[in-house]
Every structure is written in structure tokens, then in C-alpha cells.
Amino acid sequence: MAASLLTDDLILEILSRLPARSLHQFKCVSVPWRDLITDPTNRRKLPQALAGFLYMAVSNNRRIHHHFASVYGAVAPFDPALHYLRPNKDEGITQVDACNGLLLYRRYKKNKATPWIEDACHFVVCNPATGRWVELPHPPQPQEPANSRNHTTGLAFDPVVSSHFHVLCFEYNFPGAYIKGVNIYSSRAGAWSRRDSGMVEKVILCSKCVYVGGMLYVIGNLKHINGEYVLVGVDMEGKVWKTIRVPYG
Questions:
Q1: Does 56 share its domain with 125?
Q2: What is the pTM of this model?
């Protein structure tokens, strides 16, 4: 009865503060709430859960086209090309990671003389459902070699736990390419921090990152032990490190 006294604007304001999972559960409260949540005009005000795949396709004229394939077969609620992330033709953009509806991109100035090297790289985190994005400051430590594409970087975000996200950029020890530390960006603090590796083992990372249960995981290789693989995990403060042996065969 109390909820019936609230105006639609007040209900939208309350619903906009909920995680996407809870929002979809509230569609079952009543028909008016369902219509309010699913109304296209309210899309930008409410969190959206995206379930699908982003992929690129190259046409005959070698132009790259961005696409989104929805798991539910629905039309993409955003433009997969994300033109607003590329303000001019001299900049390129590469998708680095995705986590629970947020996308991590690396934006860079194109180097015409040496196209395999990215000049002036920086990270951008984007919510394609709302069109909002934030450009991250450069990490505190310089990355080697100059081509930062070779560095493993992951995005950590759980809207059920918090509206804030983290970006973890692993730092390598050259030569050898073993992990020596990690640079962590916190959207809550709006700044980077650095932590030395808490592992005894020398691990070379060799896969994309996955965020589960407050830890960012990535497959690594113990090259000095017959190429044995391990799962490396680190928490969002860089204080807790763990390695889990991957079963062989």
C-alpha cells in the first residue's frame, strides 16, 4: 500500500540504485512496475544486464565492423561500434576485457611509421548500456617494452557487491617476463596503487583474466618446471596472492 503512494519518478530513482539482477526481479512485483522498468524511455536511468558477445568482422574492403550478439536474440541496446570512444581518426581502440556489463578498452594514437607500436596508450572503462565512460590516468610505473599490448590487464566489477570497479595491470620483470607486481586502479579512490608480487613462484601469464569471488584469476606458466600451468589469483588490494596447480591431461 505504501508503494502505491509513490510517484513514478520516485520509484525510478529508487530502482536506479539497485543492481541489475535485483532490478529484473522487481519486474514481478506488479504490472505497473514491470511496464515502468521495461519502458524504453527509462533505459538510461536504470541499470541494464547485458548477456551476449561482442565481436569484430572484417569486410572485403578491410574495414572492421563491431557487432553484438544477444544471448536472448534481442536487438543490441547500444551501438557496438562505440563511436564516442574514438573522437578522431588518428586514434585506435582495442577491447581488453569485459566484466559483468562493463567493458575495458585501450585507446591509443596510431603510429603510421611503426603500426605495431601504440603511442600514448590509456585505458577507458565503458558501460555500453548507459553510454557512460571514464578515462583512467596512466599507471604509476612505466611499462616495458614500449608496446603495452603485451601486458595482461583485467577488469573486476560486481554490481551486486558495489558500483565501483577495479582495473589490474600486471607488471613484468624483463628479461624473462615473470610477474613482479601489479598496478591496481580503484574507481572509488580514482587513483592507481602498486603492489609487489606476493608469489614465490616465477610465473609467466598466458591468458585472459576472469573475476570471481573478489579475486582476479589468470592462467600462468611455470616455465622452469616443465611448462606446468597454474591459476594465479590476486585480490583487489594486491595483498592476497594464490597459485593453484592446473591438473595435467
A1: no
A2: 0.71
